[in-house]
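Holo model, zinc ion. Inputs:
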Amino acid sequence: MNNETLFIAIIYLFVFLFGICIGSFLNVCIYRLPLGESLIKSNSHCMTCGTPIRKRDLIPVISWCMLKGKCHACGAKISARYTVVELLNGICYLLIFLRFDVVSNPLLASLVALMTSALIVVFFMDWDTQLINTWVVVFIGVLGIIKFLLCQRSCPMTLGSMLLGAVLVSVPLLIISLVSHEKAMGMGDVYLMAGAGLFLGAPNVLFAMLIALVVGAVCGLIIKHSSGNSVFAFGPYLAIGIAVTAVFGNEIYNWYMNMTGLNEILEDSAAMISAMF
Ligand SMILES: [Zn+2]
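Output:
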């Protein structure tokens, strides 16, 4: 292994560990945002006995394994989900930084990674509470605007595409939400697709919606079949659709255009127009 390979391997190891640490903060967001608690003040404590968690038990993933998933004071079970969220965020960071090449595209990779973290919060919070926190959505929208302003070279997007992206899915969802008195679709879903639309732009935000509908329909059927429950949050599926589109948007776009033949129609019309002049 030469020095350069070793250097890159160390960067990716650091990215993975950094992702796990951010994942630890995401757990704090997922549990405290719905309760309106501060994200920075007050230490974490055991959910059962209220004993503050010792400093040495705050190491992501490792502490949970060392404690064998139990509180050191009362022995109550600590949910494995904390560790799952930490590992999930670490793996997402690693895959995103590999995909966007951290060395040549550090800013774009960081923005996609941060949005994925916000989507992990949306996923678990909406799953638990059927609520999507507005500040998390605002955060996603701000990331989209930063990407538009600073990443034009690595990820070109026109102002029109960004603004159309913000309304293309959110406005139809808003109409569904108003007509159904928020029964079919909550306002949180509307805001989420507006914020994510700024990041993804048009037409990619449509692909995010399509993926959400397909995954949501399949999972909804499974949930209804296994638990008989037909009321479920749609936010988690939107979050999956948005994350997949943010990472594989170009591939999905090209695949869709080829599959539907839209590519050829566009090329033919472009050729026809240039032949006319
Ligand atoms: Zn305890």
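Residues 1-99 form one domain. The first helix runs from residue 3 to 32.
Archived with the compound record.
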